[in-house]
Amino acid sequence: MDMEEVKENTTAIQCMDTYNKSIGYYFFKRVLDIFGSLCGTILLSPVMIIVAIAIKINSRGPVFFAQERVGKDGKKFRMYKFRSMVINAEEILDKLKDKNEMTGPMFKIKGDPRVTNVGRFIRRTSIDELPQLLNVLKGEMSLVGPRPNLPREVDKFSEYHKLKLLAKPGLTCYWQVMGRSSIGFEEWMRLDIRYIEERSLWVDLKLIFRTVWVLFGDENAA
Question: Signal sequence span per UniProt (predicted)?
Answer without folding.
Answer: none
